[in-house]
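User: Teach me something about this protein's shape.
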Amino acid sequence: MNLTTRNQQRQIIRQQIRQLRQSLSPAEQNLAEQKITQQALDLIEKKQAKHIGLYLSFDGEISTKQLIQQLWKKNIAVYLPILHPFSANNLLFLRYHPNSSLQKNKFGILEPKLDVRNVLPTNELDIIFTPLVAFDKQGNRLGMGGGFYDRTLQNWQQKNFLPIGLAHQCQQVDALPVESWDIPLFGVLVG
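Assistant: First, the predicted structure itself:
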């Protein structure tokens, strides 16, 4: 398969799955959030994880608000990604508190304001829950196309964190057209 065809396939999948995801009713979104929250909390407890990388939902992604609230109640540290200010197309993870100041990045996604005192290196995170557009049974993840998470998740086995996708059932496909730079996830929780 040539590269153009694979890129076109990936774009078609992105477009179709994003439309499916955005068409979910508020009740479906809420039920999925409840399921994901419980699954994530069970995994965090099983792994005795104390430092959790998460994201603020955007564009129909499964909501993480309930999970974040539960983690704060349990005194488990939550870290959100921000676009790295000096290293293009990379992410930094910053501690996120109930009173953290948020701002929109160049993609319109809310992220904490950069404060170097709140940065935690990825190898000190226990789990990074990642957003995704689509996934398959092999653990392959298709994101929005910027490669931010692929770069962040590189060599995750040596960095001691688990990359876990969070998704709606409608985001699963049989098989994704995979590129050499795609980083498979440890697992995907489905709401």
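Now, about its shape. The two ends are 33 Å apart (CA to CA). DSSP finds five helices and eleven strands in the chain. If you'd like, I can walk through any region in more detail.
User: That's plenty for now, thanks!
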